[in-house]
# Entry
Amino acid sequence: MKKLFTLTSLLVLASLVLTACGGGGSKAEDLLGAIKERGYILISTDPNYAPQSSLNTEGKRPADTKCPSDALTTTEMQGFDVDVAIAVGDALGVETCFATPGWDTLTAGNWADKWDMSVGSMTITTERQKVLDFSTPYYYTPAVVAVLADSGFTSLDDLAGQAICAGVSTTYETWLNGGDLGLPASSIYAQPPADITVVPLDSDQECAQALAAGRTDFAAYSTSATVVNANIAAGISVVQLGGAVYSEDLAAAFDKASTLATASLIEEVNKLFTAMHGDGRLADLSNKWFGEDLTQAPK
# Structure
């Protein structure tokens, strides 16, 4: 009897272990199904890219969140991209959670299923399309160059021979290096100054912060007009130098190397963005965070 009891106990224990470890297995046939099955979507974004996305220092993590312990919740993040990401989760009927990988890691693709998609103001380029799939654009921004207000520079040509900062693996870095942006020629309005040195930092936002802190090894930085406006609003004494140098079509991104198929998720996100363009929700979010509507494609 004791042997029978022991054997039965072992079989029950093994069954519990298999259940706890997912021994029953996920029934999801694609990424969208897996997201709905687990009850949350993990979206990557940049925590140092205000007003698009930044940490909410006053937000407290909900006790009942489904987000993984190493992910951030909607109460811990804020910004335009954050609100767009929350809308994605709401449309799918799941909780939105945030991952914060480095930009160069994100644009390289092959995410190893560490997060589901990106809502991080990523410009659609032909090079990135080799490893990533993109949604329909959810907004558009002009890329610009900015300098300290008292720098004495008044035009792009004045920066010839100078060092200029940009976020690593951004289109701003590519433009400064004279590389192929993978954009239509009609979207590119200016060429970079001659004989410049490019200084890459982890993000273009850090370029402005470094200038404000007194760093002197570069004289300017390239980023979106939205970031420059946010820098000025934050009290950093910088000015935009001239007009836009090119226009960016910004979209959600999905990893082509995802283990689970992403087509149905992309379709749902496209439906959402189309609806949000149509009913003005994206325009409202743009006006909230940028003070202007950046959701209309440039003409």
Q: What stands out?
A: Residues 2-20 form the longest helix (19 residues).
